[in-house]
Amino acid sequence: MLDVCIFELDIYLQYPNTTEGIRELITKLSRYNLARILVEAAGGYERGLVEACAERNCQ
Fold it and tell me: Which top-level group of life is the source organism from (predicted)?
Protein backbone atom coordinates (compact mmCIF):
# COMPACT_ATOMS: atom_id res chain seq x y z
CA MET A 1 0.00 0.00 0.00
CA LEU A 2 0.98 3.61 -0.55
CA ASP A 3 0.13 5.74 2.46
CA VAL A 4 -0.06 9.44 1.66
CA CYS A 5 -0.36 12.53 3.82
CA ILE A 6 -0.89 16.03 2.48
CA PHE A 7 0.27 17.67 5.68
CA GLU A 8 -0.94 21.23 5.16
CA LEU A 9 -4.46 20.08 4.33
CA ASP A 10 -4.60 17.27 6.92
CA ILE A 11 -5.55 14.79 4.18
CA TYR A 12 -4.64 11.12 4.46
CA LEU A 13 -4.96 8.76 1.51
CA GLN A 14 -4.14 5.12 0.85
CA TYR A 15 -3.75 3.48 -2.54
CA PRO A 16 -2.58 0.02 -3.57
CA ASN A 17 1.03 -0.09 -4.75
CA THR A 18 0.01 -1.28 -8.23
CA THR A 19 0.13 0.35 -11.65
CA GLU A 20 -3.55 1.30 -11.35
CA GLY A 21 -3.18 2.51 -7.76
CA ILE A 22 -0.19 4.67 -8.68
CA ARG A 23 -2.07 6.13 -11.65
CA GLU A 24 -5.06 6.97 -9.42
CA LEU A 25 -2.78 8.49 -6.77
CA ILE A 26 -0.96 10.73 -9.23
CA THR A 27 -4.29 11.84 -10.71
CA LYS A 28 -5.50 12.71 -7.20
CA LEU A 29 -2.29 14.55 -6.30
CA SER A 30 -2.40 16.59 -9.52
CA ARG A 31 -5.49 18.36 -8.12
CA TYR A 32 -3.37 20.04 -5.47
CA ASN A 33 -0.69 22.71 -5.83
CA LEU A 34 2.08 20.65 -4.25
CA ALA A 35 5.60 22.02 -3.93
CA ARG A 36 7.20 18.56 -3.67
CA ILE A 37 6.51 14.91 -3.12
CA LEU A 38 8.63 12.98 -0.63
CA VAL A 39 8.91 9.21 -0.82
CA GLU A 40 10.36 6.89 1.81
CA ALA A 41 12.94 4.49 0.45
CA ALA A 42 11.37 1.12 1.14
CA GLY A 43 13.59 -1.53 -0.38
CA GLY A 44 12.50 -0.81 -3.94
CA TYR A 45 8.76 -0.82 -3.27
CA GLU A 46 8.77 2.93 -3.94
CA ARG A 47 10.28 2.58 -7.42
CA GLY A 48 6.98 2.42 -9.37
CA LEU A 49 5.72 5.64 -7.80
CA VAL A 50 9.04 7.43 -8.28
CA GLU A 51 9.21 6.40 -11.94
CA ALA A 52 5.59 7.46 -12.54
CA CYS A 53 6.27 10.83 -10.91
CA ALA A 54 9.37 11.30 -13.08
CA GLU A 55 7.33 10.57 -16.20
CA ARG A 56 4.65 13.08 -15.15
CA ASN A 57 7.30 15.62 -14.06
CA CYS A 58 6.16 15.64 -10.41
CA GLN A 59 8.37 17.60 -8.05
Answer: Bacteria
pLDDT at residue number 58: 66
Domain region containing 20: 2-56
Answer positive or negative: Cα dihedral of 45, 37, 50, 3. Answer: positive
Domain count, the chain: 1
Which residues, listed in sequence order, are joined to residue 2 by a DSSP beta bridge? 15
- Ranges in the chain, pLDDT < 50: none
pTM here is 0.83
Burial class of residue 1 (count of CB atoms within 10 Å of its CB; 0-12, 13-18, 19+): exposed
